Fold these 3 entries.
Entry 1:
Amino acid sequence: MTIKDIAKKADVSVATVSRVVNGYKWVSDDVRNRVMAVVEAENYRPNYNASVMATGKSNMIVIVIPESVSPFFAQFTSVATKELKAAGYVTMLYQTYNDEAEEIAFFGSPFAQMADGIISVTDGMDKELLMKIIQPLREKQKPVLFIDRYLPPDIADCVVNDNIGGMKSAVDLLYKNGHHQIGIILGRTGMTIVNDKITGFHQAMESLDLPVDNRYIRMGDWTVETGYLETQHLLSMPEPPTAIIACNNFICEGALKWFDHAGLQVGKDISLIGVEESSTDTMLFSWLGITTLKLDSERAAIDASRYMVGKLKHDPPQDTPPETEYPMELIVRKSVVNLNKNES
């Protein structure tokens, strides 16, 4: 059955059938009931692709993420999906693993062209290349919102976490507790967050007149294995750091596994600060007593979703500007040793 067949059987125009099946209000109850009786009797389903081609709207928003197992990405997508569904949009997830080729494939695909809007939490592509890749989307006036990625405001909107300020607060806490030799472990992928975290670390150390020893800056993947191996490397050095900043939850888990293997007690034999706690794993970090930098993934997801819906309806919320920066909250627990107290 086509929409024309439905219109003929219900003795109405094609436009009237379209208004009924799309839920428009300005149709009388008598006409609506007559059309829906035919629709249900014939088990009619609208042609989605034809509707998209005809209207230019899919009511679909794609959320692009590196992967779905991280607590931050899992909570972000869960909250965003709920917000967007309430606003009448279907959400699709696309994983890129922060791989440049995967991002190029997505942004150049018909899938991206079909979406009404895109929220991207990935950061695996060079800025100049990214701006070139999303140019066709801009020409079609499809809004693209980036999380933790800086782009010029005339290219795309951004919602970012203050990784530079967060690293400064972490280093400051360690310094106040007598730590001068500080190690940091992070992944290589995710250009903006990696650069911001390293920049924040350097700036914090330099502001405290502490030397930056590049041997203490270890990079690998954002995995438990990297946390384990790089922690082992740092603490096997002739002059090991007295504290380690683990730059995501998996790296933090790996560091804890190596401490346990080596018989070291966090908060007594070694100091550790985790990064990227979200509200879904707060109970775990609290139980373990790990000091962390916390991301407000729920607020970021709500703001990003509402801002995207506002852009699509040409009425973005005024309290969420195109470039919003969220502070990272330092949650102090029991994993930092006070060396000043030990010396006295």
Note: The longest strand covers residues 271-277.
Entry 2:
Amino acid sequence: MNCEIICVGTELLLGDILNTNAQYLSRELAALGIGLHHQQVVGDNPDRMRESISKALAESDLVILSGGLGPTADDLTKEICCEVMDEELVLDEEILQGIKNYFSSKGLAMPENNSKQAFVPKKNGIVLKNANGTAPGCAVEKNGKIAIMLPGPPRELIPMFENEVKPYLAKKTGGVILSKQVRTFGIGESDMASRVKDLLNGENPTVAPYAKDGEALLRVTARAENEEKAARMCDEAIEKIKQRIGKYIYGIDCQSLEEKAVELLKKADKTLALAESCTGGYIAKRITDIPGASSVFEYGIVSYSNEVKQKLLGVNAETLDKYTEVSEQAAAEMAQGVRKLSGADFGLSVTGFAGPDAASDGRPAGLAYIGFSCAEKTQVRELRTGKNAREYNRYVAASNALHMLIEYLSERNDKE
């Protein structure tokens, strides 16, 4: 099976929105073993959309479209695609009622134009459920061709692809397709890829590297006649990966550092408190993004000023005078102070220069000190990102703090 991706939206052509859908879909299709021959962006123009869809269906077995499923007059993806495929659209009363319920749950009446989202292919289509919005997707299979229409917002498209499209395509390609993620920290994508280079060339299972700020991961995907065999194939590949980069792996099939940290805190029945300076509450935000974090997270203090560091956290004035607020010594006292103040089992602290400019004394942006304190010890790690990017430095500093906690809890579990 070969495929083409068409992303619909004038805002994509103008650069107002970054086209992350194309990147996501390309990677997912590669993992599924579906060849991607072409991808394009087309604006909200009926004639150009009609031309693009017609050409794509003539040249590819599968066409995946994203965007243009909304309620406004220029949202025409479904209408144009079904017109090209000579597929009639009809109103689905059950979907219409679901959209009405969505609005009523917010205390609102459904605008009349939203009813167009409840029209679906009459004969040769299936509806793809949208648990995160009002626009259902759909797939039309006709004359040996398949067109799959997905909503544009990534928070809707990604879950729909994972939960609806993957199983649908698995049936078309034969067997079961299963993916597992190996998440790493402290190793770059290129270094990680070089250590597992031979595994990246496999056809089944496939191993594909990905990177995000400060992290790298490997996605292992296997195709088999049943889920049990596919899982076994993935696990065998993951064991080989562990032999190469095991010390950098912090989780298998977890979504993030914060998810892993909350999981380990729950398992250990321990609590955490935070003292953040340059990260400005970023760690607390990421921790509280995880459902159930309230059982392990006491509170966080954004101690931006030296006065707060001294009054609330008990950092010594002499420490600040001698070593400054961005120092190993200050980070240690911040972690100790918030742990004692909160009564939590662990204290984490971050102090540094987020940037984009260097400090007045010449120390670089991206320099940070991360403190960890528990009853047994206090330790501090220095971080130098080498970047002048403020948001990047804050995110990576928060990630390093979370990983420091994960390392301690993982080692503690291993000893027990």
Note: The mean pLDDT is 93.
Entry 3:
Amino acid sequence: MKKCLLIMLLLLPLVIEAQIKVLEDTPKPTSKPYVVLYDSLSNISTIRDDSIKHHESYKHLIGQTIFYVEPDDTKSRVHHKSFYDTPEIKYGTTALPYDSCMNRYWKITNLVNYKPPFAVADKEIFELTDTTDGKRVYCEPRNMNRDFIVVGFYEKIKENYIGKTFIYNNTYFSEVWDNDRYNYLMDLQTKKHNKDIPEKTKWKCIDIAAYNVTKQDAMYDDYECRCPIILVFENDSLGKYYSYVQTKTGKPFKDTKNCYWITDKGHEEESILLYLGKFLDEEQEAYISKRDKEEKQYFEAQKKKMLKKYGKYWGKLVAEGQLEIGMTKQMCRDSWGEPKDINTTSTRYGTHEQWVYTTIYVYFDNGKISAIQDR
């Protein structure tokens, strides 16, 4: 009993204070949500469920409170979520008046399986209950990630980012990405991507909000499934910019910074997941700096050792982690470490070996490098 009381007291501040901030001219929500802890890395998406035929379900969302993000002009509303007073949503079913459902918090109370005529599989329909007046409506999951925000997910993102400092790390090298501005750091005033943001600039996350951009992207609105949460970052020199918390297709960012180090164990490769596809946090940056310093110290010690072992020409190449035709097997090991695999072929002309590394193949004839090939 005391334990339950303690949990209720801890959750009480969330019930009172939790409120989704909305940019632009959207009216304030009609009620405050009850926040339930959320453990998903995405906003509204399916999870695998082997107990059902199509293996994907939204059932993990039952009990969550969601906020409906109002479209910011009348034209775009025709592409947005429609609400119904029956779970049997099919062609010809009349939707509820839009204004009676907008700008509210809803609790997902159930999932109703409904099989439309001629459909191959059942369809999951959300049963939503208004947190203010208890009104019950139904809607399809289609494009839901674009129109709703799970309040628990919003609070989770807020806790993970607000007040923290991040280091910019631009991973986009191709001009093809220009059109996909949702994956960029955007100027808060101009809504445009600044291509000239310097690497390793520091940004503090100062705000989080729901931001609907359908007004300027109306023609693509029906295909836009990203979660409409943005985080606002500030840099002392560049000002305020924002970033979406998910990609344009509503998936978590999975971009990584690929690091390569040469150590006494050979070439080491490590992929470090970037925050929002474009940031390192201060701990990650400190780790990379530490590894870079260790690599520099290793090179200095290795150069002295290899010059002494192999002489000026070969010793310099080995110390710098280079490979060259004519090197011995031991030189190769000292330069690149042990290979992942060794394939041997013996003929009357001698023994041929292929050493397999992460990025290259090294070929030996009679104990010396005869060829180097990219994988």
Note: Residues 231 and 347 are 64 Å apart (CA to CA).
